[in-house]
Amino acid sequence: METDRPDGRTPNQLRPLVCSCSILHRSHGSASWAQGETKVLAAVYGPKAGTKKSENPEKASIEVIWKPKTGQIGKVEKEYEMILKRTLESICIRTIYPNTTTSVIVQVVHDDGALLPCAINAACAALVDAGIPLKHLAVAICCSVTDSGCIILDPTKDEEEKMKAFINLVFPNTIVSVLPEGSLQAGSEPMAHGIMTSITQGAMSVDDYLHCLERGRAASARLSEFVRKNIELKSTSEASKAG
Amino acid sequence: MREIQLPLSQTQKVRLQKALEQLESLSTKVNSDASVIIADSIHVNHEDGVLKGHGTADLNGEVVATLCGVVERVNKLVYVRALRSRYKPEVGDIVIGRVVEVAQKRWRLEINYNQDAVLLLSSMNMPDGVQRRRTAVDELNMRCIFEENDVVCAEVRGFQHDGLHLQARSRKYGKLNRGQLLTVPPYLVKRQKQHFHHLEEFGIDLILGCNGFIWVGEHVEAKDDMIEDQVSQSDSQVLFPNKNCVSLEEQEKNYTILETRKYISRAANAVRVLSTLGFNITLEIIKGIIDLSLSMNLDIHDMLGSEFCVLVAEKEAERRSSMKKRR
Question: Transmembrane stretches, by residue range (chain B) (predicted)?
């Protein structure tokens, strides 16, 4: 089994993660998320009053606008918009603000592979920054399958072009009790992880798909820890500064 | 809402970091055990019949947080106090809004809420102060009272079937003239008994709106204004203060002297410094920053520089630690 990758990573290793919040002045929430060279900037406006005609006014609706790095949006970007909208709708609590619209604008800064998971992570961080009520956080990850059946995580652009198939997965973030010893869950077993979004491209056998799920779920634990630590630090420092 | 984006030099960065760490150590004991992020489960005693408040949800019989913030418990009520969120109105709040629309019998105001607030014609005093029924002529003259993009101060009346209603039934509410409107995150403005402040030594008025809109303007005498107007002007002038005044007398009335304008800008920059640093905005802190800038003979635009912001952070750390020792 070949374990070497061009940038020196092991098959299960993610690229370095960088996340910044509150970087735009006029938006209600904003976040920038980078995985290696791939970077996405997300801004959230709203909730604003009113809904579009095609939407249900009894619930809050979410509008996603995808901005590519250059040029106009094509079919691929429209598909990304729809996937992102469905994912965000599933994590937001939409009954709290009826007849409102929340706009999420996703600007691609650079694309070096695994763009859609990076955008989902950035949009979730921006929603948290805007104070939108959410059921849980979402972490997204990309797995790919080589011709020899090897599974690697978080491929770059060059690796994506050589892959036989790849899959984008979105998992809910893990849940931690405020007082761990007071948790009502059985033992220390975390809640069962559900899959929120799963999109595959290329030819993939069922065994490969299940292996990708295993690897993706294991890697999402690290992503969850990163997101949680980031938000906790920010929340604590803001409360202490306000006084 | 932007984070601290000051062009700090290396020395200033170290000083600011030290001041913020001191502030964090002062409040870490209070906040660290209650901080939650989204989907954390909050431990409650289910036998007590706990009420789930804002920012919480029920998930498989367990209380989980839907916002990032601090858990607060008031008797049986458990809720999450979020920091970064829109303004949540409560009855009796003093808010400042901007008129976005003049509709039939009402004005729509933007108050940093997820829908526009409504100020009915019948919910406010007429400019001449006469208490009478509103007629069709008053409806036609609504744009003479408030027009689009005017800044209005009002009080939250409550939620009705068609949205949030405001009222302006006192002379201290109404249209705001000759000043600056600032926008800060709403969590920086605490609810207090007094939100109208008159800084006598500077001759300016300060209104801290609960929705994060802050008004700094020239002082207006609430009671004398009506008497004076009735003496010096005709009724039509009083009824329609928005009309364009061509006469020299009217222009002179709208003029603000340079000294007062400088104080207005200085107070506005003090609020901006506090908002940039993320500190609570109260009257004594604003006064302290103004006095600090005056004692240093600082220019008004230099108040927004990085050196003064670092100095304000250090002074705030000293103030809070001294208050802590005093207890």
Answer: none
